[in-house]
Amino acid sequence: MISVLPSQRHRALVTCDGCRAEHMETVDRPGRSSVCGERMAINTGQVAAKLSARGWRVAGRKQLCPGCVAQRRAEGRQAQEVKMARAAPATPAAREKAAPGGAAGAGGVAAAVVAMPGAEAPRQPTRAQKREIVQLLDASYDVKAGRYVGGETDQTVAASLPGILPGWVASVREDLYGPAGGNEEIEGLLAELRRELAAMAARDAAIEAARAELAEARGALAGFLKRLEAIRAAVGPKAVRA
């Protein structure tokens, strides 16, 4: 949660929605004041940008500190590893050991061969997991812009939810929200890159113009020098010494 401090339009109090840790952030550009200036708004856009640079996760009106972000990602990875380990096919030795009677039945009679199971269908999220994905996508995806907000992606959303696979997030997003479309951070970097390229092109044009002007001045001086040499040759050395 981002809240403005009383009578301080340049400072915001940020509270982590996970552990409730508090952080003070300063902005260069204040927000707008309401009627008569009784209530003041903070520049949430600049606050969100600064928080993202500090490692916070900003998704709509929810903010998570770097510690909570790391913890949720670790929990998500751990849950995925456990599920993958459970879903991994057993080795032939393990299947033989798990068969009735072990490797051989009573009296040395070999146990029946256990049939290999067919390929399992891809796992699907439960209804509760789908609700969790939708709740986070509501705060992380801008439907009008057709992209994620901040630095969010399918992978970061999945990492924030224990046991959720990125493919599930991508499927729900495609069905209910829109295309991946990058995110605000990528768009901001692209815009900055375009500005830098335009500035470089302008500097190149200025340099070329300066070179052309210099060449013109050099040509004018060369012509003036030829005229002086011609005058000197016409009047002779005595006139020059006089």
Could you characterize the architecture of this molecule?
With 242 residues, the protein is mainly alpha-helical. Among the domains are: 7-65, no CATH class; 195-237. The chain has helices spanning 44-53, 66-87, 92-98, 127-140, 154-160, 166-176, 184-241, and strands spanning 2-5, 8-15, 22-26, 57-59, 62-64, 141-142, 147-148. The strands form three sheets. A three-stranded antiparallel sheet has the order 1-2-3, covered by helices on one side. Strands 4-5 form a two-stranded antiparallel ribbon. α2 (66-87) crosses α5 (154-160) and α5 (154-160) packs across α6 (166-176). The longest helix is centred in the C-terminal third of the chain and has 58 residues, at 184-241. The protein is elongated, with a radius of gyration of 35 Å.
Question: Keyphrases for this structure?
Answer:
coiled coil, elongated, 11% strand, 3-stranded antiparallel sheet, 242 residues
Summarize the structure.
With 242 residues, this protein is mostly helical. The chain has 7 helices and 7 strands; from the N terminus they run E-E-E-H-E-E-H-H-H-E-E-H-H-H.
Compile the SSE list and pairings:
Elements: E1 2-5, E2 8-15, E3 22-26, H1 44-53, E4 57-59, E5 62-64, H2 66-87, H3 92-98, H4 127-140, E6 141-142, E7 147-148, H5 154-160, H6 166-176, H7 184-241
Antiparallel strand pairs: 1-2, 2-3, 4-5, 6-7
Radius of gyration: 35 Å
Helix content: 40-55%
Order of helices and strands: EEEHEEHHHEEHHH
**Can you count the beta strands?**
7
**Number of alpha- plus pi-helical segments:** 7
Low-confidence stretches: 33-39, 103-116
Q: By helix and strand content, what is the structural category?
A: mainly alpha
Average residue-wise pLDDT = 77
Distance between the termini: 90 Å
Coiled coil: 183-227
Keywords: Coiled coil
